[in-house]
Specification:
The protein starts with 16 loop residues before the first helix and ends with a helix. The protein is built from twelve helices and nine strands. By secondary structure, it is an alpha/beta fold. Strand 3, helix 4 and strand 4 form a beta-alpha-beta unit. The protein binds phosphoric acid mono(formamide)ester (CP). The site of phosphoric acid mono(formamide)ester has 8 residues, from helix 2.
């Protein structure tokens, strides 16, 4: 991970395979050192981010991303600043470019959750410190690290395993398909017509799949077709933040895409369920979400170990 120092963390396809492997391994190491089962005394645990500060720009709400970053920075000895939509001048009275230039003079890392992905690329262009994409309309790479960590914990090597996505072709799917392909997983996607994943991300996933020994990137509009023969079933909200006005229309158009016990029966024996949270009952039934097949809470916990790994690697303080 030495080559990752100073780099931005924008989307999973921008990572080399070695960087992705290194970030997952460092995340597991941090869980061993700072986690509940650790034998290391918290007062003497290493503090590689001592003296470092992280500004966290949030244009949208967050539970996991905010709390995991703030807590994880603290565990590593640094300090994180929460900058909500009404806390700073950004978007009202100041541009992303100027914000990037100013925060770079105060902070060691800038993490941002935005609406338009262009805001992340603008921030990365003008920041002189590493930027972390904490969700944009195109990508959610921190979530993918947490998801892959949960899957490796459960299955070990993921090569040849099949991941099925059921629902909206959104930002969470984009990085998960890119990351899954990098680790040699087969990818199967079911979305309603009109809610497909980005065509460019699909093309990149197919390329990564071929490079990493699997060519099975399959898409359909039929949920059961995607899930049949899969080892992992993943879904997300049908109505992301900012799409609230489309609620009625979306719930109608996603009818038949709920992950429930009947759909899970199409998956392989031993298949697991993932959801990045927050969760709504329309996209996944209680009997799947709270079942033994569900990895959703370890997945949520991994958000902290993985963002800690990204920050430490960006600052070369492993
Ligand atoms: N999964 C996720 O990003 O959760 P939050 O929106 O709560 O940060």
């Amino acid at each position: 991970l030495s080559g990752f120092e100073g780099k931005h963390f924008i989307s999973i396809d921008r990572l080399s395979n070695e960087e992705l492997r290194g970030l997952l391994d460092l995340s597991k190491k941090y869980r061993d050192v700072y986690g509940r089962g650790s034998s290391v005394d918290p007062s003497t645990a290493p503090k590689p981010l001592m003296g470092k500060t992280v500004s966290m720009i949030f244009q949208k709400r967050s539970t996991r991303t905010r709390v995991s970053t703030e807590t994880g920075t603290n565990l590593l000895g640094g300090h994180a600043l929460f900058l909500g939509p009404s806390d700073i001048q950004l978007g009202v009275n100041e541009s992303m470019r100027d914000t990037a230039s100013v925060l770079s003079r105060f902070n060691s890392i800038i993490l941002a959750r935005v609406f338009a992905h262009n805001d992340i690329t603008e921030l990365a262009k003008y920041a002189t410190v590493p930027v972390i994409n904490a969700l944009s309309d195109m990508h959610h790479p921190l979530q993918t690290l947490a998801d892959l960590m949960a899957l490796e914990d459960h299955f070990g090597d993921l090569r040849g395993k099949t991941l099925a996505w059921v629902g909206d072709g959104n930002n969470v799917l984009h990085d998960l398909m890119l990351g899954g392909a990098k680790l040699g997983m087969n990818i199967r996607i079911a979305t309603p017509k009109g809610y497909e994943e980005n065509a460019g991300v699909l093309a990149t996933t197919k390329k990564l799949a071929a490079e990493n020994g699997t060519s099975d990137v399959f898409r359909t509009t039929v949920a059961s077709e995607a899930v049949k023969g899969s080892d992992v079933v993943v879904t997300d909200t049908w109505v992301s933040m900012g799409q609230e006005a489309e609620y009625e229309k979306r719930v109608k158009e996603f009818s038949g895409y709920q992950v429930n016990a009947s759909l899970m029966k199409q998956a392989n024996p031993g298949a697991v369920f993932l959801h990045c949270l927050p969760r709504h009952p329309e996209e996944v039934s209680d009997d799947v979400f709270y079942s033994d097949q569900s990895l959703v809470f370890p997945e949520a916990e991994n958000r902290m170990w993985t963002v800690m790994a990204v920050m430490a690697a960006q600052l070369g303080k492993l």
